[in-house]
Automatic annotation (TrEMBL):
GO terms for molecular function: heme binding; lactoperoxidase activity; metal ion binding. The keyword Iron applies. The lineage of its organism: Eukaryota, Viridiplantae, Streptophyta, Embryophyta, Tracheophyta. The active site is at 75 (proton acceptor). One of its GO terms (biological process) is response to oxidative stress. The record marks 71 as: Transition state stabilizer. PROSITE patterns: PEROXIDASE_1, PEROXIDASE_2, PEROXIDASE_4. Its cofactor is Ca(2+); heme b. Keywords: Calcium, Disulfide bond, Glycoprotein, Heme, Hydrogen peroxide, Iron, Metal-binding, Oxidoreductase, Peroxidase, Secreted, Signal. It comes from Quillaja saponaria (Soap bark tree). This is Peroxidase.
Length: 351
């Protein structure tokens, strides 16, 4: 897309001057037992550069892919923990997370990007890095290449063996029409406080949404919290309920990871009810304002919240497994190991 390319040039010129690198410390982001900041240091020393170099190419072609990876990580962690269960394709044992309605935000390209990284990494390091760790690292780099903070992530996750049920998936992913109250309760159950809920919602600074996630705010009656010009633009993009079109989540800077999303909310130009209501609800409006006024503060709280989220119910040590293919449990395809070595991975220009 031409538009994404233009903003990408802009982003890379920002990166050249390295706006912001946030180094989380153990104090503000305590680690779960079994995870560490340098888990793969001896078994896969090039891990982080393999991921970063490959994603640099991917995002140079289409920065729009960054939001897809970020969303994948959220869906993975909120449902059954960060165990790469979201990457499992449905099987005879039952439908997977991918078959449940909130999957609409999951882009097929995102799954491909993770599996491609997995191939490159396993080719160089052997089967030492889980799909859950790869998704976490790819998410960090998606944020970085979009102009957001750079930060260290704890590693050492293992891949899960359990498929999440449809009900579990629905119950753990609050929808776009959720109120702030519902968000606070749903994420509060996962021990996130109001500041963390508002910070994580800031992920909507990049990405797109289908009309059906917000047209109930337009038809039949317009949500009074929608600013009129913004509402008119949305009506032009989505002329009726559930039009099959997409639009940007943060129309000010759609592909740049910054704090403009909070400026949108203050101007009543948040796309989802779950966005706008953060500014309506008195428990969160002050936090929205503080992030709109201070991007460093947003980055700091976002990084802390992401590190916390990336450790939700993780499997470590001998739990779970390290998948030989991200979409399939090892037990479901025992013959796969033999073929891994022969896989052709083109263009491994990391070294
Ligand atoms: C999303 O879930 C629906 C069923 O709810 C399924 O038909 C569709 O194929 C799924 N999409 C993806 C990308 O997995
Ligand atoms: C899933 O949720 C629906 C609606 O709440 C309920 O009727 C159904 O029994 C649940 N299924 C399982 C397997 O728990
Ligand atoms: C979250 O909800 C589950 C299921 O309803 C409950 O068992 C658990 O105690 C809750 N956790 C917190 C921290 O509220
Ligand atoms: C929505 O639009 C896309 C791209 O134009 C198309 O591939 C897809 O089949 C459409 N889906 C529906 C449900 O009409
Ligand atoms: C913005 O937030 C950062 C990070 O918390 C803090 O160090 C800085 O003092 C804040 N700036 C202002 C103007 O409040
Ligand atoms: C198992 O993996 C091999 C190698 O990739 C593949 O060709 C085959 O289709 C897989 N089988 C199943 C049942 O997924």
């Amino acid at each position: 897309m031409a538009a994404s390319f233009t903003s990408l040039v802009f982003i890379f010129s920002l990166l050249a001057s390295q706006l912001f690198v946030y180094q989380a410390t153990a104090e503000d982001a305590p680690l779960v037992n079994g995870l560490s900041w340098n888990f793969h240091k001896s078994t896969c020393p090039k891990l982080e550069s393999i991921v970063r170099n490959q994603l640099k190419k991917v995002y140079k072609k289409d920065i729009g892919q960054a939001a897809g990876i970020l969303r994948l990580h959220f869906h993975d962690c909120f449902v059954q923990g960060c165990d790469a269960s979201v990457l499992l394709e449905g099987s005879a044992s039952g439908p997977s997370e991918q078959d449940t309605p909130p999957n609409l935000t999951l882009r097929p390209e995102a799954f491909k990007i993770i599996e491609d990284l997995r191939q490159r990494i396993h080719k160089i390091c052997g089967r030492t890095v889980s799909c859950a760790d790869i998704t976490t690292l790819a998410t960090r780099d998606a944020i970085f290449f979009s102009g957001g903070p750079d930060y260290a992530v704890p590693l050492g996750r293992r891949d899960g063996l359990n498929f999440a049920t449809r009900n579990e998936t629905l119950a753990n992913l609050p929808g776009p029409s959720s109120t702030a109250d519902a968000l606070l309760r749903s994420l509060g159950n996962k021990t996130f406080d109001a500041t963390e809920v508002v910070a994580l919602s800031g992920a909507h600074t990049i990405g797109r949404s289908h009309c059906n996630s917000f047209t109930r705010r337009l038809y039949p009656n317009q949500d009074p919290t929608l600013e009129q010009n913004f509402a008119n633009n949305l009506k032009a993009i989505c002329p009726e309920l559930n039009t099959n079109t997409t639009t940007f989540l943060d129309f000010r800077t759609p592909n740049t990871f910054d704090n403009k999303y909070y400026i949108d909310l203050i101007n009543r130009q948040g796309l989802f009810t779950s966005d706008q209501d953060l500014f309506t609800d008195s428990r969160t409006s002050g936090i929205v304002r503080s992030f709109a006024e201070n991007q460093s503060l947003f980055f700091e709280k976002f990084v802390q919240s992401m590190i916390k989220m990336s450790q939700l119910k993780v499997l470590t040590g001998n739990q779970g497994e390290i998948r030989a293919k991200c979409s399939v449990r090892n037990t479901d395809n025992a013959s796969f190991f033999k073929s891994v070595v022969e896989e052709v991975v083109e263009d491994v220009s990391v070294f």
